[in-house]
Request: fold
Amino acid sequence: MIKTRIERPSQPPAFGPEQPAPTLASTDVERWADGRLEACQDWVAEEVPVSLEYNGLAHAVMLASPADLEDFAIGFSLTEGLVDHVRDITDIAIETVERGIRVRLDITGRCFARLKERRRSLAGRTGCGLCGTDSLDQVFRDIRPVAADTCFRPDRLAVALNRLAARQSLQGMTGAAHAAGWIDAMGQLHHVREDVGRHNALDKLAGALAQAGQDAGQGAMLVTSRASYEMVQKAAASGCGMLVAVSAPTALAIRTALELNVTLVGFARQGRHTVYSHAWRLPAERGEIR
Reply:
C-alpha cells in the first residue's frame, strides 16, 4: 500500500504513524484575556478535501483531517457497504494533489459491479441531499443486527473514557477534533483515531480494527461526540455491539440501535452514563461478566 509524506509545520507534535499532509497549521492571533490583548501564535486543525476513487471511478469527496487516511478509506468502504471485507480491497494509493488528497482503491470485481449499479440508480434523479442518497431505502441500509454478546463493567468504561481524553493529541492542540477509540472487554483502550469530522474518526477506527484483524464485536466503540443514526449504523456494520458517546444521541439513533441490537450509551463522562438501548451489555451491578 502506498502513502505520500509531506513535511508538517515546524515543532508540531507527532500524530499517527504516517501522514501525507500536515494535520496542523500555525496562525497569528490576537488573544483577549483578563482585560489584556496579546498577539501570539496558535495551532489550528487542517481540513482537507479527500477524494475516494474505486477502480478509477470517483465516488465521494469528504472533508477530513489528513491523517490515517488508509484506515479512513478502508473504514469508509466497510461501514458504507461498498466492500464486504478488507480482503475486497486489493490496493490503496494515496496521492497529494493541488487542492486536496486523492485516495485510489482497487476493489474486487464483484464489489465494483455493485458500486456501479448503486451509482446508476442515482443518475439523473433529484436527490434528497443526504450523503448522495435519493431514497429512504438508501438511508436505512440493510444491516444485520449485531450478534456480539460482550459485556462491560461500568467502572472500566469510565477509566477508558479518561484514557481516551488523554490520547486526543490533535484535540489538545487545536480544540477542533473528535476522537474514536475501541476498548476490549477488560476496558483496555486501543486504536484511537482523530479527525475534524466525527463520522471520519469512527471510519478511521473501523479501518484500523479491520487492518489489525480485530473482531470489533469483542469490544466497544467510544466517540467524543453526539451519537447520530449514521454512527450507530457504522458501529453495527463493523459488528460492534456497543457505541458509547460523550454527548447525546438522537431519537433516530436510539430506534436504530434498538433495531440493530446495539447498546447505545450517551452522556458518558465523569463516572456517569445513560443507557438508551440493550442495557444488558452494561450491567449496573458488579458480577460475573462473560
